[in-house]
Amino acid sequence: MIVTVTPNPSIDRTVALGTPLVRGAVHRVTSATGEPGGKGVNVARALALAGVDTVAVLPAGEADPMLVALSAAGVAYRTVPSGGAVRTNLTITEADGTTTKLNEPGAPLDASALQALTRTVLEYAETASWIVLSGSLPPGVPDRWYADVVAQLATAPCRVAVDTSERPLDALAAAFGDAAPDVIKPNAEELAGLVGASPAELEVAAAEGDPTPVVAAASQLVERGIRTVLVTLGAAGAVLVDPSGSWWAAPPPISPRSTVGAGDSALAGYLRAAVGGAEPPRRLQMAVAYGSAAAALPGSALPAPSQIDLNAVRVHAITPAPTRP
Q1: What are the beta bridge partners of residue 55?
Q2: Which residues of the chain have pLDDT under 70?
Q3: Which helix (H) or strand (E) holds 313?
Q4: Where is each Carbohydrate kinase PfkB domain found (predicted)?
Q5: How much is the pLDDT for 258?
C-alpha cells in the first residue's frame, strides 16, 4: 500500500480561457472543472487509476465536499477532524498551456488535529510500503512538521517520499542528518535553493539538452543522505540521481493544456514503477511518461494507464559533473 499524506488538501477548480489572460479584463470561460486536489491527493488519484493500492490521509470534516469528491474519484481515504472547510484553489489555463494558480491558505490545524494526523501517519507506516508527504502546510502547522515526521519514520519498515517547497522544504533540508527521506521531488528552482545554485542556469542548461548541472546539484543532496532525488524539469523532462547512478529522460512532444498535477503525476509514475520492482531508469521513464501525459490533459485531470506511452520516453545515463568543494 502507498499512503499519501496531504496536510493542506483542496478542491481544485480549473477554468479554461480561449484567449490570453489580461489583468483587469473581462474573460469568457470556455470550460470549468472541479477535482479533489492537493499534491498528495493528486498522487493518490493517479495511483488509484492504475489500480495501485493507495489511501489518501488528510484533514477534513465529515460532511466536507472533499470527501464526496474523493469517493466519486474512487480514492480510498482516511481523515482526521478539521475545524474548517477544505480550501478551494483556482487555476486558470490558457490555450497555449500557460497556467495561473490562485491558492487559498487552507483551514488552520490546531495542536490536537496535528497530533491526530501524525499518529495516523505513524500507524500506517507499520504496514505501508511507502509514505508520501506532499504539499504545503496549512496555518498553524510548524514549518518543520515534515522533518519531524520523517525523523519519526526513520525506524519504520516503509520508505518515505517528500514533495514540498518553500519553508517546509528548507526546514526538511536543515534536518537531513536526522530526517533524510528516501525520495524527494524538487523542481529546478527548489533544487537550486537547496544547494545554492542558480535556478536559471539549471533550467537553461536542461532546456538546451545538458542535464549535467542538474545532476551535479542533485548529487549534493545524495551526499547529504537522500537516497533518491527526482528532479522534474517541465518540458525538459526529469533527472533521477541515486547512489548507483544518474539518468535524464525527455518527454515526448505534446500539446500542453495544463501543468496542474504534472509533477504529482510524475511522482505517482515513479512510485507505481517502484512498487512494481522496476530499476531506477525504468522508474524515471514511468515518471516522465506520467508527467507529460498529465500536461496534455485539461484542467486538473490525471492520466490513466491507457494514456501512458512509455516507449515514447528515452532514458539516458549521465556522468555527473564534479561538485564544488
Answers
A1: 3
A2: 320-325
A3: none
A4: 23-305
A5: 76
- The catalytic residue among 12, 163, 182, 264 is 264
Q: What whole-number distance in Å separates Cα of residue 146 and Cα of residue 113? A: 15
Give me 27's grid cell: 474573460
264 included as an active-site residue: yes
Q: In this structure, are residues 169 and 134 in contact, taking their beta carbons and an 8 Å threshold?
A: no
Strands 238-242 and 245-250: antiparallel
Q: What is the pLDDT of residues 191-248, one digit of tens each?
A: 999 999 999 999 999 999 999 999 999 999 999 999 999 999 999 999 999 999 999 9
Long-range Cβ contact pairs of 148-153 (< 8 A, separation 24 or more): 148/118, 148/179, 149/5, 149/118, 149/121, 149/122, 150/175, 150/179, 150/180, 150/181, 151/175, 151/178, 151/179, 152/118, 152/122, 153/121, 153/122, 153/125
Residue 321 confidence (pLDDT): 46
Strands (E), 135-284: 159-163, 183-184, 228-232, 238-242, 245-250
Domain boundaries in the chain? 2-317
Q: What does the alpha-carbon distance between residue 178 and residue 124 come to, in Å, rounded to a whole number?
A: 21
Domain at 2-317: CATH code: 3.40.1190.20
Q: Enter the C-alpha cell of residue 149.
A: 515526521
User: What is the bridge-based pairing of β-strands 314-317 and 245-250?
Assistant: antiparallel
- How many of the other CB atoms lie within 10 Å of CB of 289? 25
Which single residue is written with the C-alpha cell 491507457? 306
Q: Mark 103-133 as b/e (b = at least 16 C-beta within 10 Å).
A: eeebbebeeebbebbbebbeebbeebebbbb
Global pTM reads 0.92
- How many Cα atoms within 13 Å fall on the side-chain side of residue 39? 21
